[in-house]
Amino acid sequence: MATCVELNTAAKMPLLGLGTWKSPPGKVTAAVMAAIDAGYRHFDCAYVYENENEVGDGIQQKIKEGVVKRGDLFIVSKLWCTFHEKPLVKGACQKTLAALKLDYLDLYLMHWPLGLKAGEELFPADDKGMSIPSNTDILHTWEAMEKLMDAGLVKAIGVSNFNHEQIERILNKPGLKHKPANNQIECNPYLTQEKLIKYCQSKGIAVTAYSPLGSPDRPWAKPEDPSLLDDPKIKEIAAKHNKTPAQVVLRFQIQRNVIVIPKSVTPQRIVENFKVFDFELTKEEMATIFSFNRNWRAYTMGTCKGHKEYPCHAEY
Predict the structure, then answer these.
(1) Active site residue ranges
(2) N or C of the chain: less Cβ packing under 10 Å?
């Protein structure tokens, strides 16, 4: 059973990785080490998660122990929105590399299509609490991303939270040197993203689903929000395969050739989430899970709703 997706750079990207957003600095090093021991080779990081140092510690420890070599790993990070100005892109990437203690990344993504005011603050806001945009253009930022690839700092570049119109603009850019290899988007059975995934895959752009479990631990969850892993239909499918609801929901994406990056710092769950390559959902079960779609997003980046590049106004 395939465990990788081939990118348009010919690199192989593991279909399952460990997410590290909201993983507390005190726990993420151990989580990364437990994941490597469990067989994970793909790690999803970002500057804005403020824990890349500790992720790097876990990776380095396992390399030192001889459990893995750097070449066995697939490490992803993301350019934060306050670094979209062309002269800032390389320094941002170098900060991430230094924190992770690596000399290259396998994949570097523009985290959002939203340029924000440069400076120390990760979320620069006005007195009404709305984000302060920068006067940057995603096409110019993309040119700086291409230079990182040419310099050997990153092996592939991509985007995250981009809608199809924004990707189309990059693909149609005069003088484009490197196509996006990946679009990382929020995706789970409540937000199946069929149109956007079909679009990306038709253009040779791999798709990664973040929050594939519906992000039950998001800080702003309300009691009335739908809870994916408690859904009786998911539980029923899980019981049939002798699997957990989380494993079923991850398997659903893998069968669509969509990469998944579930986050956990619990060693037992880290191991459980990896055991998704030894069973297959039927066509009917896939259809049942697709029918859950309600275009429900946990992440709306609401403070940026007025931004000219806000991606969620488009249908897909």
Answers:
(1) 49
(2) N
